[in-house]
Automatic annotation (TrEMBL):
Alphabetical keyword list: Antibiotic resistance, Cell membrane, Cell shape, Cell wall biogenesis/degradation, Hydrolase, Membrane, Peptidoglycan synthesis, Transmembrane, Transmembrane helix
Family: Belongs to the UppP family.
Principal subcellular localisation of the protein: membrane
One GO molecular-function entry: undecaprenyl-diphosphatase activity
Taxonomic lineage from the root: Bacteria, Bacillati, Bacillota, Clostridia, Lachnospirales
Primary role: Catalyzes the dephosphorylation of undecaprenyl diphosphate (UPP). Confers resistance to bacitracin.
HAMAP family listed in its UniProt record: Undec_diphosphatase (MF_01006)
Location relative to the cell: Cell membrane
Name by which UniProt lists this protein: Undecaprenyl-diphosphatase
Annotated organism of origin: Blautia argi
Cell membrane among keywords: yes
Domain of life: Bacteria
Major enzyme class: hydrolase
Protein's GO biological process: cell wall organization; peptidoglycan biosynthetic process; regulation of cell shape; response to antibiotic
């Protein structure tokens, strides 16, 4: 892969990962049209790492709070086990600590529940996804599906639910739909945001949930791909090219997040929907013409 290819793929990844237009679909279309000979897994891992850094930078306060509350949750759970045995053996009546005592703890558990079906779909559908990425028709269909969901975002009224109002069944449902975004052309952000709003989430909470749900998804994808590249030998020059692509993806991704946060306040997603329909149409035509 040339450094130009790495820059181009990194730019596309950063621009589209956090906009509801599907980064995987754009990358698949770009590789097929330009015949970019990309080595695959390791470069994909580094692109994921780059975009993950962008999420950490943009949502550092929320992620720090989730980490702290997660540690406290584990500690309280352990203390409750000790209380249980003490009450049982010493006939005490010590009160148990409340585990889900605030919205951040609830949010952490909801995100973990959503991650389960997403991870399972990613693992079991990985071979099918590789086949879908090798042509232009699959990402074209995915972009059409994304466009439909983006239209729903504009016309579906936002609710009032915050973490304490959301059930774990709802989180599971969101995870199932998020897992569908493993297919090229289907935007993880777009479909997650649409389902959150359809489930009655407060607009601000829906936005935060959709972005934070990306962390375990992107991290899991990177780890899964990293497992499959063990033993791969690369030259220092090639690795440097990969790092450049990842750095571009992270830098551009951070600004894409800022753009998306502003767009969410206006809820004018019909423009993204039209864009997905147009790109999907072009990809479908190229699939049969080229």
């Amino acid at each position: 892969m040339s450094i130009i290819d790495a820059l181009l793929l990194g730019l596309v990844q950063g621009l589209t990962e956090f906009l509801p237009v599907s980064s995987s679909g754009h990358l698949a279309i770009l590789k097929n049209l330009l015949q970019i000979k990309e080595t695959g897994l390791l470069f994909s891992v580094l692109l994921h790492v780059g975009t993950l850094v962008a999420v950490f930078a943009a949502f550092r306060r929320d992620l720090k709070k989730l980490l702290l509350e997660g540690c406290k949750l584990v500690y309280d759970f352990w203390e409750n086990i000790r209380v249980y045995f003490k009450n049982r053996h010493e006939q005490e009546a010590i009160r148990y600590r409340k585990l889900v005592s605030n919205n951040y703890r609830r949010l952490l558990l909801l995100l973990l529940v959503s991650t389960i079906p997403t991870a399972l779909e990613g693992v079991f559908l990985s071979n099918l996804v590789l086949q879908a990425e090798s042509n232009l028709l699959a990402p074209a269909i995915g972009l059409f599906i994304t466009g439909v969901f983006l239209l729903i975002i504009d016309f579906f009224p936002a609710g009032k639910k915050i973490p304490k109002d959301v059930s774990y069944k709802t989180a599971l449902l969101i995870g199932v739909f998020q897992g569908i975004a493993v297919f090229p052309g289907i935007s993880r952000l777009g479909i997650t945001l649409a389902v959150c709003l359809m489930c009655g989430f407060n607009k601000k909470f829906a936005m935060k949930y959709a972005f934070l749900a990306a962390v375990p998804s992107i991290l899991g994808a990177a780890v899964w791909e990293l497992i499959q590249v063990s033993g791969l030998k690369l030259s220092l020059e090639t690795f440097g090219v990969y790092i450049v692509g990842a750095a571009v993806a992270g830098f551009v991704g951070y600004f894409s997040i800022q753009i998306m946060l502003r767009m969410l306040k206006r809820r004018k997603f019909i423009f993204f929907a039209v864009y997905c329909f147009l790109i999907g149409t072009v990809a479908a035509i190229c699939n049969f013409v080229l």
